[in-house]
Amino acid sequence: MDHPKAVLFDAYGTLFDVYSVGLLAEQLFPGQGQALSVLWRDKQIEYTRLVTTSNDGAHYQPFWDLTRAGLRYACKRLGLELTDERELRLMNQYRHLSAFPENREVLQVLRTRGITTGILSNGDPQMLGIAVRSAELDGLLDHVISVDSVRKYKTHPDAYRLGVQAVKKPAAQILFVSCNAWDALAATWFGYRTLWVNRYGVPFEELGTQPTRIGTSLDDVLAFFD
């Protein structure tokens, strides 16, 4: 197959480490940092699906609001006292999540090869703007695409369609990269070529479809262009 004409990256979990917030959570809630970061992330994603599929999206809320709601739920579930000050600190940390170390080099290589790059994310525009600038990636991306414009979260097809519309190429000519197995699967169903970045050595989804390729870091993106 010809190499992809563009590469779109998921943001949260793929470019930015959603579990890095667990370091601050551990300082605020000793012994509970990891549990909080995992439950917070799970609830955040559950809420995106709930507001997308219920009443034709009538209950849509921006990703930032769902992230805050997920944090509040997780703290209640774990019996942790979430003061206003702790909530402010944790939410601010989420704006500035740690970036994975290979991001910049991979994006630089793609840019030197003339490959269109972008983010296609559940994050709302302000969140993405801060995260990209914080990671110093803003000069390496042609597109930063938020599903907020269609008010539907991934895995809705309208969310994935935004990438095709921005790049102006068929989905089969675009590589979609995600560390989230459910995201890589749905993007494959939509028609993208896909790379699932399996950073944590877990099984892929058991629904009869595999991504185009499986890797362990963003470095594996470059193998599509060998």
Give a short overview.
The chain is built from eight helices and six strands. The N and C termini lie close together (11 Å). InterPro entries: 2-HAD, HAD-like_sf, HAD-SF_hydro_IA, HAD_sf, PGP-like_dom2, S-2-haloacid_dehalogenase.
- Tally of separate domains: 2
What is the 3D shape?
globular
CATH topology assignment of the largest domain: Rossmann fold
Integer-rounded radius of gyration: 17 Å
SSE sequence, one letter per element: EHHHHHEHEHEHEE
Largest sheet: 6 strands, parallel
Low-confidence stretches: none
CATH superfamily of the largest domain: HAD superfamily/HAD-like
Pfam family, one: Hydrolase
Function: Catalyzes the hydrolytic dehalogenation of small (S)-2-haloalkanoic acids to yield the corresponding (R)-2-hydroxyalkanoic acids.
Family: Belongs to the HAD-like hydrolase superfamily. S-2-haloalkanoic acid dehalogenase family.
Enzyme class: hydrolase
Task: Describe the fold and architecture.
The protein is an alpha/beta fold and 226 residues long. The protein folds into 2 domains: 6-16 and 98-225, Rossmann fold, CATH 3.40.50; 18-95, Putative phosphatase, domain 2 (DNA polymerase, domain 1). The protein is built from 8 helices and 6 strands; from the N terminus they run E-H-H-H-H-H-E-H-E-H-E-H-E-E. It has helices at 22-28, 33-53, 63-78, 84-95, 103-112, 125-134, 157-167, 181-190; strands at residues 6-9, 116-121, 143-146, 174-178, 193-197, 213-215. It has a 6-stranded parallel β-sheet, sandwiched between helices. Strand 2, helix 6 (125-134) and strand 3 (143-146) form a beta-alpha-beta unit. Its EC number is 3.8.1.2. Keywords: Hydrolase. Catalyzes the hydrolytic dehalogenation of small (S)-2-haloalkanoic acids to yield the corresponding (R)-2-hydroxyalkanoic acids.
